TrEMBL record:
Family listed: Belongs to the flavin-dependent halogenase family. Bacterial tryptophan halogenase subfamily.
This protein's UniProt keywords: Monooxygenase, Oxidoreductase
Annotated protein name in UniProt: FADH2-dependent halogenase
Organism of provenance: Streptosporangium roseum
Gene Ontology MF annotations: monooxygenase activity
Protein's gene: halo
A UniProt-annotated Pfam family: Trp_halogenase
Amino acid sequence: FPRYQIGESILPSCRPIFELLGVWDKVEAHGFQPKGGAFFQWGPEEWEVRFSNLGDDTPNAWQVIRSEFDQLLLDHARELGVEVIEGVSVRDIEFDGDRAVAARWYDTKDPERSGRIEFGHVIDASGRGGVLATRHLKNRRFHDVFRNVAAWTYWKNAKPLSKGPSGAIAVCSVEDGWSWPIP
């Protein structure tokens, strides 16, 4: 940790959550790419959304580098007294009836080193792997509409959009699909 993940597009609606967590000033000061809204081109239609027109005092959001954003949040949690254990992976979750009560873990660099931790609450932050949903609850369901393929890449020296708010993402239809350019 931090691990590489494709970037993330944070929306203005996240501000109250960041303020509640006490991390807003750190997120704002970090220097992530500001995003003033979005531009849409779908077939012959074009329109834009400007965050400054949404009626709150947050005129922009950010495109974040996930590894930096995740590290910022983790460090903030640690500063608030959260016990952070890095370099381990959850092997199994123990239940008392329907309630998760403990996890068995192993060291990712030394699989012979392992342990068990008990808890009152659990948050499954295992991402797409979904440890609880796939291994224990077995309640992950995929909707046929979302069974598709996405391809992504990075571009160097690409020109910024000439339409839409500053730093805007673009959502554009193309034959047999759509694209989502992100600055």
